[in-house]
């Protein structure tokens, strides 16, 4: 049975379509771009192998790159297993899963139904959140349901129903092996729309965010643009951080210069990660707002002092 016609878009949905649409044109990129970027990465990453164990492969994600370019002490602490899932950490995963379900739902999705379904699927699976969902308190479940439901509602308020001709893809994994499989770059994109035509860029890569914009959000998307270029040979047309709390997308066109800068940041970060883990580089404290949720805050004088200087309350253990 054919689907009923979607309702007319609201003002915020029209604004979303406008900013993500192809009004700014579709640039064309040279066919050799993919090989050049790959060669630059291979050359830059090859020396880090000396800091890996014989059978070790370094897996580099946007999260790890973000960490090494911020607080390196926290990176090593989380490597040691000092990572405890909590409601603020879980809500991103649950809401993304719920949005993914909602985009493909056969009828108009109700946000809390999607969240319940997402929580059920993750609770039953083999996921890093499974244990947390199976053992958390009723209050934590209720808080998770409420905060994830808020994100999901906002997504469907801001985005019109995504038509198949826009080629919507959710939670798409990207995986690039380099240096004879000793280094892997990986990522998972929240949402993509569109596709390349020949050497003409057409895809938009979208990261869904809550809270206020941060510089790191743009770096995350640039990393995804690089991975997608290495995969299909044509860069995305646009990268966009979509801020659900404000209904505004911050977009950036993808250029060769942007991809070159991302290669340099990726190489620099990966080399430092390998050195930190091998103990050949001393980690640097870089305190910031994120100290509030750091697993080693209780023993980190640098982070506690920074929060005190900024007048930011230190959370109690059951508040983290
Ligand atoms: S509390 Fe802050 S400065 Fe200390 S390790 Fe954690 S993130 Fe780094």
Could you name the key traits of this structure?
320 residues, alpha/beta, Lambda Exonuclease, Chain A, six-stranded mixed β-sheet, 11 helices, 6 strands, binds iron/sulfur cluster
Summarize the structure.
The chain is α/β, with parallel strands linked by helices and about 325 residues long. The chain has 2 domains: about 15-70 and about 165-265, Lambda Exonuclease, Chain A; about 85-160, no CATH class. Helix content is about 45%, strand content about 15%.
Describe what you observe in this structure.
There is one protein chain. The protein has 320 residues and is α/β, with parallel strands linked by helices. The protein has 2 domains: 13-69 and 164-266, Lambda Exonuclease, Chain A (Alpha-Beta Complex); 87-158, no CATH class. Helix content is 46%, strand content 13%. Strands 1, 2, 3, 4, 5 and 6 form a 6-stranded mixed β-sheet that branches. Helix 5 crosses helix 6 (111-124). It starts with 10 loop residues before the first helix and ends in an 11-residue tail after the last helix. The mean pLDDT is 90. The chain binds iron/sulfur cluster. Iron/sulfur cluster is lined by residues 71, 73-74, 285, 287, 290-291, 294, 296-297, 300, 302-303.
Round the mean pLDDT to the nearest integer and report it. Answer: 90
How many helical stretches?
11
CATH class of the largest domain: Alpha Beta
Structural class: alpha/beta
Q: Architecture of the largest domain, CATH level 2?
A: Alpha-Beta Complex
Given as residue ranges, the uncertain stretches (5+ residues, pLDDT < 50) are: none
Give the distance, in angstroms, between the N- and C-terminal Cα atoms. 48 Å
Helix content: 40-55%
Classify the fold: give the CATH topology of the largest domain: Lambda Exonuclease, Chain A
Radius of gyration, in angstroms, nearest whole number = 21 Å
Number of domains: 2
Order of helices and strands: HHEHHHHHHEEEHEEHH
Question: How would you describe the shape?
Answer: globular
Bound molecules: iron/sulfur cluster
Number of strands: 6
Main sheet: strands, sense, barrel: 6 strands, mixed
| Residue share in β-strands | 5-15%
């Amino acid at each position: 049975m054919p689907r009923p016609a979607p309702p007319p878009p609201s003002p915020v949905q029209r604004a979303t379509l406008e900013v993500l649409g192809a009004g700014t044109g579709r640039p064309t990129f040279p066919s050799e771009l993919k090989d050049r970027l790959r060669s630059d990465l291979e050359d830059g990453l090859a020396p880090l192998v000396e800091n890996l164990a014989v059978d070790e492969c370094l897996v580099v994600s946007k999260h790890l790159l973000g960490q090494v370019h911020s607080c390196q002490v926290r990176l090593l602490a989380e490597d040691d297993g000092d990572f405890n899932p909590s409601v603020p950490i879980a809500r991103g995963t649950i809401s993304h899963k719920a949005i993914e379900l909602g985009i493909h739902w056969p009828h108009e999705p109700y946000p809390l139904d999607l969240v319940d379904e997402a929580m059920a699927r993750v609770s039953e699976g083999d996921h890093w959140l499974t244990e947390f969902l199976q053992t958390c308190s009723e209050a934590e479940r209720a808080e998770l349901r409420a905060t994830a439901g808020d994100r999901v509602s906002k997504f469907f308020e801001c985005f019109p129903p995504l038509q198949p001709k826009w080629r919507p893809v959710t939670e798409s994994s990207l995986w690039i092996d380099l240096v004879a499989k000793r280094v892997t770059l990986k990522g998972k994109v929240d949402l993509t729309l569109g596709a390349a035509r020949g050497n003409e860029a057409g895809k938009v890569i979208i990261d869904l965010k809550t809270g206020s914009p941060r510089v790191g959000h743009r770096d995350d998307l640039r990393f995804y643009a690089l991975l997608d270029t290495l995969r299909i040979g044509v860069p995305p047309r646009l990268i966009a951080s979509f801020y659900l709390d404000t209904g505004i997308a911050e977009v950036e066109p993808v250029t060769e210069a942007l991809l070159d800068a991302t290669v340099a940041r990726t190489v620099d970060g990966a080399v430092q990660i390998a050195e930190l883990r091998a103990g050949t580089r001393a980690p640097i404290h870089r305190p910031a707002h994120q100290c509030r949720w750091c697993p080693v805050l209780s023993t980190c004088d640098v982070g506690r002092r920074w929060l005190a200087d900024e007048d930011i309350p230190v959370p109690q253990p059951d508040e983290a």
